[in-house]
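batch job 7 of whatever, protein = RCC1-like domain-containing protein
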Amino acid sequence: MEDSHRVDDEANERIEEVRQEIWSWGAGTEGQLATGKLQDEHHPQLLSAFSSFGSLSLLSCGGAHVIALTPSGRVLTWGRGTSGQLGHGEMVNSLQPKPVESLESFVITHVSAGWNHSGFVSDTGYLFTCGDGSFGQLGHGDYKSLHFPVQVSHFGSRHVEQVACGMRHSLVLLEGHLGDHVYGFGSGKRGQLGTSNDKIRSSSVPQITLGLEDVKIVSIRANGDHSAALSANGQLYTWGRGFSGSSDVYHPHGVTASLSFTQAALGWNHALTLADDGEVFMLGGNHHGVLSNPQKTQLVKPMIEDSHEAIIERIPGLNGKEVLQIAAGAEHSALVTENGSIMTWGWGEHGQLGLGNTEDQASPQVVTLGHNHPVLDTSKLYCGSGFTFALRTCSCPSQNLV
């Protein structure tokens, strides 16, 4: 009987072996793909550069640099570093991931990569920023650039939960249920700070974002000159540069469609939203095929209350598949379906769609990662301006046990 139990235990050990794979593709001429090469990649590349760091829990992809977070709260950065955005104490590019040494004594829980600046949040609620500060986007009260992370003193004892870095601005979400818990700083000329009803050039000190005082915000997003926030009840708010030629919006406005959203992703000219039923919608995006075929999209209703031009559209071509996650680059989009399929569309000039070519795509296309067939395959996608990363967790039959 004892032998039979031992056999059962060994059989269970043979069932599966969980591993994480990290893939990248697209623009790579500044080292942002972590392949060790300064070149674009039109096919997904399986990376080995992270083997000494273990698994990753989160990525954030910026203009041409990437920030990675490990489950223990360690930070790695690579790619373009000429503005100090990598936080390594120098202003040079890095082809390989390197730890941000000045943050080693902190447990980092949230990160964001902007065009040329970076933000890091610790478990104690501290916010650190570095990189290009010429628009005040670092929040230190000046317009200087920094080549290593410095704590933003403005928040003092306030507990920061999230940071979102756009092209020339930043957003911060503070801990709390209601009240003055969303802040903006940096360039505000398109309304992306949401701090004034009038046009302001910039602010180097965090200012309260207006219009969200009675809303519980759970996540924030920034890219290009756009800003967005999701509330606890699934309401999406956007502000900043107008979509599809509509007017700029100077403080948060909610989606008027009768939909509840769980995720949002921003590009330079478009936004993606994921509804709680697994359907994907798009706002704007009439450049480089980033907008799916207008003849096939289904219009819902105007998205912003005082604009008749900004409309939200249902993305076609998914054949009823439920979508689990969305991501957006400058002018390309990506998603993961319920069966683990990765799909991309939009601008393809640098191979960022991962389809083996540089063509634009007007509707979602399936991307293939390698040739193995894992028992369980879950993926998470992250898009930079012209490149894409995928974290894939595979549960495969163990080949080390007989």
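notes: The domain at 17-396 is CATH 2.130.10.30 (Methylamine Dehydrogenase; Chain H).
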